[in-house]
Give the backbone structure.
Amino acid sequence: QLVPTQSPSASASLGASVKLTCTLNTGHSNYAIAWHQQQPGKGPRFLMKVNGDGSHTKADGIPDRFSGSSSGAESYLTISSLQAEDEADYYCQTWGTAIQFFGGGTKLTVL
Amino acid sequence: QVQLVQSGPEVKKPGSSVKVSCQASGGTFSSSVISWVRQAPGQGLEWMGTIIPLYGTANYAQKFQDRVTMTADKSTSTAYMELTALTSEDTAMYFCARGRGRMVQGFIIFEGPTDYWSQGTLVTVSS
């Protein structure tokens, strides 16, 4: 199954960098995934698609501070120069034939 | 710029049904797919199903297969999600989201992630 796994929480200091991980099972290495951000009290927002080769395609208006990468069954969202407004829940998403999955989300706290 | 605007909050009794609308503007409605995703209070995102308006065909998550119906009106670029036999566990924010896909033999083949989201509709089920 293409069900992704995420750590429930992460934290980093203002101005620092953080790397969030989305893990698929080993049978689904090099699959494309997507990252979505959900700020408190708001709907989700598509950030980027991370391709199986590790490249990424960001949505319009997403700052350069956000980047994506992957290695095998793991995909990453790296946020550099953390700002207060980056404090949010981050979800990864996978998709297959007639089905989609969301990871459980990672709650990012900016210290 | 694609915008998805949903209908307003709903309060329903257990056992009843709810129908939520999602009107799209910008982009090409018929060639998109519209997914419905819900989020219970304090919980994560849960995919319910997807409809491809061009064909009016929907694929549903197994969990909701018996209770959900997704439809679309191409003339008004509006998608609908109806959920029946409501219980308190259906209390959640319901989002519609656009993506890209094609249909092959009745199944939606996603061609990428959901890339535009609505603001959501809060459905509260309470006696």
Remarks:
- The CA atoms of residues 31 and 37 of chain B lie 20 Å apart.
